[in-house]
Amino acid sequence: MRKRGLRLAFLGLSLSSSWGNGHATTYRALLKALHARGHDILFLERETPWYAAHRDLLKPGFCRLALYGSPTGLRRYQSELAAADAVIVGSFVPDGIAIGEWVLANTQGVTAFYDIDTPATLASVETDSCEYLTAEQIPRYDLYLSFSSGPMLHRLKSRFGARRATALYCSVDPDLYRPQPTAPRWDLGYLGTYSRDRQPALERLLLEPACRMRQLRFVVAGAQYPPNVRWPANVDHIAHIAPARHAGFYSSLRWALNLTRAEMIRAGHSPSVRLFEAAASGAPIITDCWPGLEELFRPNAEIVAAAGTGDVMAALALPELQRKLIASSARRRVLAQHTSRRRAMEIERHLLATIQGVVMDSEDSVAQHA
């Protein structure tokens, strides 16, 4: 690590609003940890009516947050972006293709694409339907940071020609996500925005157990659920819980449910940020099944994998001592391997290696033409 911190610029979906997206808490944890390591950070966020109406972080103390109205609005930050050691463009950024082109043409430092949705991104890139990245852009970025590991990294290199592709899982801020002195209020709860492809799993792993176990209490917290969803009488629905209250929510659950998008299940090796947040908050987790889960948590010792309703009901009936042992074991694993500080060190190492590699590639090119 050199003495001077890096000058970093992120162009992401949202930092100011956590409403209806998991990107905000992911960026907040990572950028806070990078700031603590001495890096100077600018975060550029597209001004949109949806997030403007639901902002819960206007003045982050760990970075400069600036809003822009359109891709042309980035011109006012051109000098700062040109001077940055690295410019990182995130997935699902509005007009991301145009913004990516602008970044690739107007910056001097390392360019990186930070994909918090890798399986979904590549599936849409394959069909030329992705609105924030094209296949042609992937090999032009110096670095591809993927929240998926495993076969996705090989695919990025072999199929799409990524120069450097490496995993960067989401992470959790342990200062914010820790067990709270709250008595359990619900037996099983899920925190997540409505998604059509997750809904069948929610019905199978939460709503159906609720119908069969009327003596227990359940909760779903998240926005955008359609009005035709039928909530059993013993299931509470909360439209939104702000990040500052996430740890308290998880601490009020005897069990937390983790659900995964269909593309992420097919790809595997794509842990949700909610998985780490729940574990850090001391909640034992029941999760759907996907390849690579066992590389993150030991099944039945640190997490319970459920394929169907019966598996959930069996977990809910486990002895209290076993439930607490699963929770404490998962929390230890997350604090050792998946904190924001650990992730900041990883991205720092990847960026420094890429900066050095770009310099060496440039020198080799000059030498070849001398």
What would you say this structure looks like, in words?
The chain has about 375 residues and is of the alpha/beta class. The chain is about 40% helix and about 15% strand. It contains 14 helices and 13 strands. Strand 12, helix 11 (about 295) and strand 13 form a beta-alpha-beta unit. Helix 1 (about 25-35) crosses helix 14. The longest helix has 29 residues, at about 340-370. Residues about 365-370 have low confidence and may be disordered.
Would you kindly provide a brief summary of this structure?
With 370 residues, this protein is an alpha/beta fold.
Task: Reconstruct the topology from this structure.
Layout: E1 7-12, H1 23-36, E2 40-46, H2 49-52, E3 64-68, H3 78-83, E4 86-90, H4 96-106, E5 110-115, H5 118-126, E6 143-146, H6 151-158, E7 165-167, E8 186-191, H7 199-212, E9 218-221, E10 235-238, H8 246-251, E11 253-258, H9 262-267, H10 273-280, E12 285-287, H11 293-296, E13 304-305, H12 309-316, H13 320-337, H14 340-368
Parallel strand pairs: 1-2, 1-4, 2-3, 4-5, 5-6, 6-7, 8-9, 8-11, 9-10, 11-12, 12-13
Helix pairs in contact: 1-14, 7-12
